[in-house]
Amino acid sequence: MTFHPLRALFARLAAGLAVTALATGSALAAYPDKPIKMIVPFAPGGGTDSIARTLGVAMSQTLGQPVIIDNKPGAGTIIGSDFVAKSAPDGYTLVVATFAHAVNPSLMAKLPFDTDKAFSPVALLARGPNILVVRADSPYKSVQDVLAAARANPGKLTFASQGNGTSAHLAGEMFNNLAKVQMTHVPYKGAGPAMTDLLGGQVDMMFATAAAAAPQMASGKLRALGVTTLQRSAALKDIPAIAESVPGYAVESWYGIFVPAGTPADAVAKLNAAANKATQDAEFRKRLEPEGLSVSTGAPAELDTYVRAEEARWRKVVKENKLKID
């Protein structure tokens, strides 16, 4: 039998290509084959952290890998978001984005990333109101009480937030602007620390996310004065809308998942399917619905459309009201 060097070379190349193709196909099919890191850009103990941990447990059951929560608070979510923006686009690093994700481009003169280009959407999770809350022993028993005190003592009343650019911050600034009062903003690195100081009497009030406020409301430690959505929440129907006292007032919180731009479509699809299934989980719904949050999931494009609309809406609000971070 005649030996043909070229034929032998081609055979080896073909075998090598077959092995490479098989390995590549196996790698794609195997995703995820290691733990997934879910970045929460707030300190532990707040509403976003709580939702992420409940979500992570449910998603891990579908994905077959642990979903590890990693808190990276600070700079109005920018530290955590920047970490994800600069992470490998391989489907193993996610960020739980909130209101700040859509507002920071308008509030910040310069971000370390381009929000519209640095991330790929995975899934919108939930939407709902913030709640204006005070301590149970606070002298303020209504939104009208707060308005009267703020008008009588400009700059004296303080409101906490989980960070600059967050829904709690902008909700307070919007209140100041539309009600023509002056209250002082005190930012923290998450809802947990902010709530601790609110309960401790270091600040007067907080336009807290429903997720952060609900446990303290249920325990009787906080009194709810109003919801930030234009109308009353179906799940919180006994709490008046702030708009009933401050016409035109409306702020909505939301939660969504993003990955670094360039993450393979196959990985995004699997994460989206896992997130959608997780939001149908009884424990997840039990965690959300009593707080006035409504589950709102769908295709990645739905999150993209929603966030772009929020960006445009708040860019207009920030510009018209000359809002700035402090």
Radius of gyration: 23 Å
Detail the poorly predicted runs.
18-28
**Mean pLDDT rating:** 88
What is the helix fraction of residues, given as a range?
40-55%
Q: Structural class of the secondary elements? A: alpha/beta
Give the N-to-C terminal Cα separation.
84 Å
Question: Quick one: CATH class of the largest domain?
Answer: Alpha Beta
Structurally, how many domains make up the residues?
2
Number of strands: 10
Name the CATH superfamily assignment of the largest domain: Bordetella uptake gene, domain 1
CATH architecture assignment of the largest domain:
3-Layer(aba) Sandwich
Residues in β-strands, percent: 15-25%
The total count of helices amounts to 12
Helix-strand topology string: HEHEHEHHEHEHEHEHEEHHEH
CATH topology description of the largest domain = D-Maltodextrin-Binding Protein, domain 2
Q: What is the general shape?
A: globular
Main β-sheet description: 10 strands, mixed
List the topology elements.
Layout: H1 5-30, E1 36-40, H2 47-63, E2 67-71, H3 78-85, E3 93-98, H4 99-107, H5 115-118, E4 119-135, H6 143-152, E5 158-161, H7 167-179, E6 184-187, H8 191-200, E7 205-209, H9 210-218, E8 222-227, E9 252-260, H10 265-279, H11 282-288, E10 294-295, H12 300-321
Parallel strand pairs: 1-2, 1-3, 5-6, 5-7
Antiparallel strand pairs: 3-9, 4-7, 4-8, 4-9, 4-10
Which key phrases capture this entry?
326 residues; alpha/beta; D-Maltodextrin-Binding Protein, domain 2; 2 domains; 12 helices; 10 strands; globular
Structural notes for this entry:
By secondary structure, this protein is an alpha/beta fold. The longest helix is centred in the N-terminal third of the chain and has 26 residues, at 5-30. Helix 2 (47-63) crosses helix 9. The chain has helices spanning 5-30, 47-63, 78-85, 99-107, 115-118, 143-152, 167-179, 191-200, 210-218, 265-279, 282-288, 300-321; strands at residues 36-40, 67-71, 93-98, 119-135, 158-161, 184-187, 205-209, 222-227, 252-260, 294-295. Mean pLDDT is 88; it is low at 18-28. The chain is built from twelve helices and ten strands. The radius of gyration is 23 Å and the shape is globular. Strands 1, 2, 3, 4, 5, 6, 7, 8, 9 and 10 form a ten-stranded mixed sheet that branches. The chain folds into two domains: 34-128 and 253-321, D-Maltodextrin-Binding Protein, domain 2 (3-Layer(aba) Sandwich), CATH 3.40.190; 129-244, Periplasmic binding protein-like II (D-Maltodextrin-Binding Protein, domain 2, 3-Layer(aba) Sandwich). The chain is 46% helix and 19% strand.
